[in-house]
Design a protein that fits this description.
The structure is a homodimer.
Chain A: E1 2-6, H1 14-27, E2 31-34, H2 49-60, E3 67-70, E4 96-99, H3 104-112, E5 116-119, H4 131-144, E6 158-162, H5 163-169, E7 182-188, H6 192-203, H7 206-209, E8 213-220, H8 233-244, E9 248-251, E10 263-264
Parallel strand pairs in A: 1-2, 1-3, 3-4, 4-5, 6-7, 7-8, 8-9
Antiparallel strand pairs in A: 5-10
Helix pairs in contact in A: 5-6, 6-8
Chain lengths: 270, 270
């Protein structure tokens, strides 16, 4: 089982790479190939668009690679996400792709192209408290589709997105068809008023209104609202679901933390 | 000339109300009626949704009111913007509506309903440095459509929006038809990476791709990007315009400051 790591968004710290390599080596069930592009730096990004796109296309076209694991989030995968659409190399179709947060742009596009993708922890997560658990969970899914890695409430086709990323991809060529699926959302570092505005935008979408239900993962590192917003993230999400006639299904076990569970996109869960 | 002030978003400070009343009184060409709803407070908002909506509908239905001036931005007008759509009181159709920033949600909806709206300074702006100039410019437009108040580069139908608000209203019932118009954008308190993401989203819209050109107003109070983003707001906007085949027309004289000029929506400029 060969897993290639590329960084379509921001630079991967060397410490994270080393610790994840050590975890993979100790397991003995997978070979982790961390592309040197992960360590490039060009302003906000892990190298210029051209180099990030080239690294992604290189591992997508490599028939010896079984899975592509996005190194971390941040921002920037949308700038090269057209690489996930259109004429894909044939070898791209026999792989699993995993990431979350900013990687959601790519996951959405790859899913649209008919590839197997999953929301799940990334190599950078190893630096979080309890991060080894996150990386182990991700590898358990990548290597052997371990059901224990899955978000526990999944009952049918599902998607999981950072709410800001979801709002930003609506109306773009990356937007998946959400019909009848469950939509799980989470976010980080957004004020309550921004979460409210994002939910206004997202729940106005006819596509989103076609979901079976929305569930809310964790919303963390919320900056202080001045004045106090007046309701919390769960009340905000439940309110906009009610306004839009979308079922709100309660909480989900995903988010920017070590407990973040795996959500395969659009997959039938038996 | 009777101008009603309501606050569909956040609370208007009493000091701002008093200073704007003094400016209007000194002019002697308009009567400013500041609705008591402007001073309500309910969490983030100038009163609960119901009270903000009721105040707006009350002044819209008042045949003695010639113009409605939104007190300030912040966040929240989208929560009551459906009041700008659908069955409007007949008296609503003979008024001018002005505001900017978060008020853009309402301006968009009111424009869609065929009403006369303009991007322009608001009462809260009086508290800015040079704020009296901003309020005087707004009143010059509200009272006598003074061409000196206009953004100087306008050559045809135009729209002006806060970029974040524009991104948030795409795909909602508030979205105007931008075909052939000039689109002016500005923003405040957004990181460079967020401006980049907003431009990705906005320029993916087929509606936005139908504009004559995009011009960029001021983008102020940009929080530090860590690491440095790698390009500035003008380069970001020009880059996404180029990617989307939209003409970038350079800078515009609008923004969150006292120099913010008036942009009537969709109007033919002679």
């Amino acid at each position: 089982m060969k897993i290639a790591v590329v960084a379509p968004s921001c630079t991967l710290p060397h410490e994270a790479a080393e610790r994840v390599q050590a975890i993979a080596a100790a397991r003995g069930d997978c070979e982790l190939v961390i592309h040197p592009q992960c360590f490039l730096s060009d302003g906000h990004f892990a190298g210029p668009d051209e180099q990030r796109r080239a690294a992604l296309l290189e591992v997508m076209a490599d028939a010896t690679v079984d899975a592509i694991w996005f190194a971390r989030g941040g921002y920037g995968s949308n700038r090269i996400a057209e690489a996930a659409l259109g004429d894909l190399p044939p070898a791209a179709r026999s792989k699993l792709y995993m990431g979350y947060s900013d990687s959601g742009f790519l996951l959405a596009g790859l899913h649209r192209s008919g590839l197997e993708v999953a929301h799940g922890p990334m190599p950078r997560d190893v630096l979080r408290e309890g991060g080894e658990r996150a990386v182990t969970r991700a590898l358990d899914w990548l290597v052997r589709r371990d059901p224990a890695a899955l978000e526990p409430g999944l009952q049918g086709p599902a998607f999981a997105f950072n709410l800001t990323v979801l709002s930003s991809l609506l109306g773009t060529p990356l937007e998946p068809d959400f019909s009848g699926a469950e939509l799980l959302i989470e976010d980080v570092s957004e004020h309550h008023y921004r979460i409210d505005r994002l939910m206004f935008h997202v729940t106005a979408s006819a596509n989103v209104r076609g979901v079976a239900q929305i569930r809310l993962g964790r919303v963390v590192e919320i900056p202080a609202n001045d004045p106090e917003f007046g309701s919390d993230e769960q009340a905000i999400v439940a309110d906009w679901c009610a306004r839009a006639g979308i079922r709100f299904g309660g909480r989900a076990d995903i988010g920017h933390d070590a407990e973040n569970r795996v959500v395969p996109f659009g997959m039938k869960i038996s």
